[in-house]
């Protein structure tokens, strides 16, 4: 991307009223799919007490086992049950699509990934090594009857088949039953474009946001959660409102998965550094990485692939470490923006035992004007 194209990119993406975080421009879609080749698919389960789903991120249109992509992860707080991180840390590559689901759906989705890889490559586990499924999770048990074990292999297959560049956010896919800052959370997207040495690079983020307590919420530097909690306290005319205000001060628990994609030519070591900067974006929203929160970030590059069958691998010229600061900034901004996007895009959901999470837009109809007034 040329500097001229860079200058022509829109400064604000998403629904009207959602603030644009930082000064860097977003890509034309404002999603992780602004990184060329990346697609996302959702399978949403919305059936009474079953409020859950699967989200699949494909790093490219080909076979990720045959043509792997460089990747690395950072575990900011390890209260999580993801599958596949050990080999990822050792080898620095992805070899399946990235899958997101609820905590008890991990095994079924991992099995679906294994079956799909073996179907595409029958030599896996025989002449070739076994495949490393990669599944991330958050606990959606407040809204979803997680003990029903509703997620199965077909849901992964459906999400995989649905993957495209038109990426939905909010209460969709794996985000269907997620909560964030005592509001409805879910899937969020964002992207940022930077110029380094005369070339434009894109960083995209997709988050599965399921963390935080209302008084902690910060949006674009504004302590929105504290303001809302104070507003609720002064307007608490019913027992339900009082209970909601009391519930908001419980310890933070939940999780967030942050997937960061870039077209910048980085190796696995550099991607580890990039993934760690996702924590900066998360902290801006008010999270303190609470004891019960599984906060995990993964970064991958689409600049090149690593062939499975090769004696030698030729890498493109890699970006020098000292030129990575713009990518770090883009990562932090994208993750921050993606969390806001998850809140802003989500719809209210009622699920298990009548539990309900209102959306941000329902809870704060004057959201945009409130931020403008305070800032």
UniProtKB/TrEMBL annotation:
<dbReference type="GO" id="GO:0004177">
    <property type="term" value="F:aminopeptidase activity"/>
</dbReference>
<comment type="similarity">
    <text>Belongs to the peptidase S58 family.</text>
</comment>
<protein>
    <submittedName>
        <fullName>Aminopeptidase</fullName>
        <ecNumber>3.4.11.25</ecNumber>
    </submittedName>
</protein>
<feature type="region of interest" description="Disordered">
    <location>
        <begin position="1"/>
        <end position="20"/>
    </location>
</feature>
<keyword id="KW-0645">Protease</keyword>
<feature type="compositionally biased region" description="Low complexity">
    <location>
        <begin position="1"/>
        <end position="19"/>
    </location>
</feature>
<dbReference type="InterPro" id="IPR016117">
    <property type="entry name" value="ArgJ-like_dom_sf"/>
</dbReference>
<keyword id="KW-0031">Aminopeptidase</keyword>
<dbReference type="Pfam" id="PF03576">
    <property type="entry name" value="Peptidase_S58"/>
</dbReference>
<dbReference type="InterPro" id="IPR005321">
    <property type="entry name" value="Peptidase_S58_DmpA"/>
</dbReference>
<keyword id="KW-0378">Hydrolase</keyword>
């Amino acid at each position: 991307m040329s500097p001229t194209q860079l200058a022509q990119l829109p400064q604000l993406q998403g629904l009207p009223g959602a603030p644009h975080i930082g000064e860097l421009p977003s890509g034309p879609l404002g999603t992780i799919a602004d990184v060329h080749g990346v697609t996302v698919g959702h399978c949403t389960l919305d059936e009474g007490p079953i409020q859950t789903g699967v989200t699949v991120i494909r790093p490219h249109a080909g076979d990720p086992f045959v043509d792997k992509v460089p990747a690395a992860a950072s575990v900011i707080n390890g209260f999580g049950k993801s599958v596949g991180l050990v080999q990822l840390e050792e080898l620095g590559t992805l070899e399946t699509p990235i899958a997101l689901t609820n905590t008890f759906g991990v095994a079924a989705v991992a099995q679906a990934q294994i079956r799909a890889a073996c179907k595409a490559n029958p030599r896996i586990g025989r002449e070739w090594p076994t495949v490393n499924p990669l599944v991330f999770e958050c606990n959606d048990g407040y809204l979803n009857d997680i003990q029903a074990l509703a997620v199965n292999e077909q849901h992964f297959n459906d999400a995989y088949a649905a993957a495209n560049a038109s990426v939905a956010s909010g209460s969709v896919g794996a985000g269907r039953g997620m909560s964030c800052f005592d509001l409805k959370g879910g899937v969020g997207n964002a992207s940022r474009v930077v110029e380094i040495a005369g070339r434009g690079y894109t960083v995209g983020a997709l988050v599965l946001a399921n963390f935080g307590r209302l008084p902690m919420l910060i949006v674009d530097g504004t302590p929105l959660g504290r303001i809302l909690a104070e507003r609720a306290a002064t307007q608490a005319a019913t027992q339900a409102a009082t209970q909601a205000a009391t519930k908001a001060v419980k310890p933070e628990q939940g999780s967030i998965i942050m997937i960061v994609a870039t077209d910048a030519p980085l190796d696995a070591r550099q991607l580890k550094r990039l993934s760690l900067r996702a924590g900066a974006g998360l902290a801006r929203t008010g999270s303190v990485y609470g004891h019960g929160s599984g906060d995990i970030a993964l970064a991958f590059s689409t600049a090149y692939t690593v062939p499975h069958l090769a004696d030698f691998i030729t890498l493109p010229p890699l970006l020098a470490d000292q030129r990575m600061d713009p990518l770090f900034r883009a990562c932090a901004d994208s993750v921050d923006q993606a969390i806001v996007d998850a809140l802003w895009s989500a719809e209210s959901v009622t699920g298990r035992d009548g539990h309900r999470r209102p959306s941000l837009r329902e809870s704060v109809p004057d959201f945009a004007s409130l931020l403008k007034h305070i800032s």
